[in-house]
Amino acid sequence: MKVSVLGLGFVGLTTGLGFAKKGFTTYGFDVNAERLQSLKKHVIPFHEPHLKEILEETDQKTFFLDSDFNEAIMQSDAIFLCVGTPEKEDGSADLTYIFKAIEQILAVPTKKFQVLITKSTVPPSTVSEEVIPFVKKILEQKNGERNIGFASNPEFLREGYCWEDFINPDRIVIGVESEASKNILETLYNPFNAPIHYVNYNTSEFIKYLSNTLLSTMISYANEMSMVAGSIGEIDIKKAFRVLHEDKRWYGNPAGMKNYVYPGCGYGGYCLPKDTAALIKISEKNGFSPPILKSNLEINRSIKSYLVDKVVKEHKSDVKIGILGLSFKPDSDDVRLAPPKEIIEDLVTRGYKNILAYDPVAVKEFKKYNGDLKIQYEETLKSLVESSEVLLLLTGWKEFKENEQLFSNKTLYDFRYFL
């Protein structure tokens, strides 16, 4: 198995050396001649621990920096694109370097099956809507033929810890949509003994952005909260955050906090909605309007109508809709400000009258607070399923997962991404 890596920055050099360390013949290329010359002298042109030692160990054994480009490409089973994708003025990703690298690769004739892999960070849909059409266009213009596959393999490397993160990954994400391409990537990554997640191209690219935007959002949230605290005054900001970090949900494997970083149909209950609203008000009273907190409430409102839109687009108003779950979370009968109530109300407002509902423990409480809602309550999960045409799962009760086979012949909207 032979590998070519185009682009020898933090990501490319680490990737190339990583595969070379695992014993794969790896060719490294970079358009920056000065950088390439430095690397040939075993000088790493940026600060990154361990890379110098690995370069010295693998150079001219499994890692090659002076190979002929055409010969290397012709021999390679996998070609990794690790070139820059800088930000344009409008905020979009500049794919110029990706396209230039692809043109260089396609200029080399070969009948060998190869996988073209984007490791550079690119927006979701880049491989499917940009890379693949570009490759087809180039080949059509040249009347050329290439037996080529595609893959997206995002990196999760922290600067300063690139080597540790690559050689001991916590997970490997591969967007691939053909068995031939998957087999090559599987051969390359099996020696790393890490969980490998095979998904489609878009999902792979999205996972990278999901990770980065979560981190950026947490940083901005923390900064906004420091501004809220500053506007109110007499708050020890550093101490407050240190105490926050002692929450046991941050720890463990897996950490409980992961349950909060997961989509659904919004939060409810007594505390989260009212406390978020109250903090916005006291902050505004003291002269600071917190945009993230305000957007927080807005998203929590709009997610319900967004989900109802999906049902409305696909089903007429006379359809019998079964609601799975009425409490705001499982293992609780608390229905205060529960998302199921708002979703049911929205459905009724849009003309849906045949609504049935079942919850293992919360029916009594739901009736108590929402007696004006004209819906039918079922005593068992089985009776609800039998009486409904369409099911909406709104609370992640264990009973629903244990009886998932009941839903096999029904249209089910799992709005908790639970089953």
Automatic annotation (TrEMBL):
What is the uppermost EC class here?
oxidoreductase
Which UniProt keywords are given for this protein, alphabetically ordered? NAD, Oxidoreductase
Tell me the InterPro entries matching this sequence: UDP-Glc/GDP-Man, UDP-Glc/GDP-Man_DH_C, UDP-Glc/GDP-Man_DH_dimer, UDP-Glc/GDP-Man_DH_N, UDPglc_DH_bac
| Superkingdom of origin | Bacteria
Keyword Oxidoreductase on this protein?
A: yes
Q: Name one GO molecular function term.
A: NAD binding
Q: Which reaction does it catalyse?
A: UDP-alpha-D-glucose + 2 NAD(+) + H2O = UDP-alpha-D-glucuronate + 2 NADH + 3 H(+)
Provide the E.C. number(s) assigned to this enzyme.
Answer: 1.1.1.22
**Occurrences of domain UDP-glucose/GDP-mannose dehydrogenase C-terminal (ranges):** 322-418
Family, per the entry? Answer: Belongs to the UDP-glucose/GDP-mannose dehydrogenase family.
Looking up PANTHER family in the UniProt record yields: UDP-GLUCOSE 6-DEHYDROGENASE TUAD
Write down what this protein is called.
Answer: UDP-glucose 6-dehydrogenase
